[in-house]
Amino acid sequence: MSISQTTPVSPGALWTGRVFSGLIVLFMISDGVIKLPPLDVVTQTMVPLGWPADVSVARMLGIIGLISTALYALPRTSVLGAILLTGYLGGAIATNMRVGSPLFSHTLFGVYLGIILWSGLYLRDPRVRALIPFSR
């Protein structure tokens, strides 16, 4: 099946995908927004992870996360946003793995978010379903 011959998405799958995507968007917006102002709690929690306690570093991470999230939220650029967010989450996974954070609660948290992110996109976008066929 080519991308132009995609089957329509059922209403249940569409709404489940929207809910999954909405949860990711809300989480990433809160993650990005909290990094923008010069909050001491943000910069001090970055130090044990090996990042400098620098407001500009936190702010740049927040901006990257927010731009990627905005691209994910827009239907025309959702695949690009998903790819960028996957890279962002991969950096979080690598950071937590490098410092020896607990596996299931901290290190794999980015994996959990990535699964929800791509599941939401898969369920709501027939083009992604055509690219990643799980049936037939």
| Estimated share of beta-strand residues | under 5%
Query: What is the SS-derived class?
Result: mainly alpha
- Which of globular, elongated, flat, extended, rod-shaped describes the shape? elongated
Helicity level: over 70%
Cα distance spanning the termini? 10 Å
**Run of helices and strands:** HHHHHHH
- Helices, by number, come to 7
Largest sheet: none
Mean pLDDT: 93
Low-confidence stretches: none
Task: Write down how many β-strands occur, each being a DSSP E stretch of 2 or more residues.
Answer: 0
- As a whole number of angstroms, the C-alpha radius of gyration is 17 Å
Structure description:
The protein has helices at residues 11-34, 40-46, 55-73, 78-98, 103-107, 109-124, 126-131. It is elongated. The mean pLDDT is 93. 72% of the residues lie in helices and 0% in strands. It contains seven helices and no strands. By secondary structure, the protein is mainly α. The protein starts with 10 loop residues before the first helix and ends in a 5-residue tail after the last helix.
